[in-house]
Write a structure and sequence with these properties.
It is a single chain. This protein is mainly β. Helices cover 0% and strands 49% of the residues. Strand 7 and strand 8 form a beta hairpin. It is globular, with a radius of gyration of 13 Å.
């Protein structure tokens, strides 16, 4: 079992930056591929970014590509999402997720473990 806890959300003006963290306990994160998802009010949860077990491969949704950077530090059992040039459309609850896999996984239905989410609000 893996327990995931997100942190780093908050209120920021458009154009600003935030860095989300996802800390894991229970198992070492190096056994898992991971991802960030987000859910805006009234919308379905959507994929944002994914990273393989080593951190060497990453993949982004078109909506965040070039602005967001996913990374991980397996020694610290932590994954990150650096979010730059934030837009009001990025407002959502952000979730981290983990799956027992080596490569990139983007389908939310494949993930086994989820955090409780952290709110990101971008004002115009």
């Amino acid at each position: 079992q893996v327990q995931l806890v997100e942190s780093g959300g908050g209120l920021v003006q458009a154009g600003g930056s935030l860095r989300l963290s996802c800390s894991a306990s229970g198992r070492t994160l190096s056994s898992y591929a991971m991802g960030w998802f987000r859910q805006a009010p009234g919308k379905e949860r959507e994929f944002a970014a994914a990273i393989d077990w080593s951190g060497d491969s990453t993949y982004y949704a078109d909506s965040v590509k070039g602005r967001f950077t996913i990374s991980r530090d397996n020694a610290k059992n932590t994954m990150y999402l650096q979010m730059n040039r934030l837009k009001p459309g990025d407002t959502a609850v952000y979730y981290c997720a983990a799956v027992t896999a080596i490569g990139i996984v983007v389908d939310s239905s494949h993930f086994d473990y989820w955090g409780q989410g952290t709110q990101v609000t971008v004002s115009s």
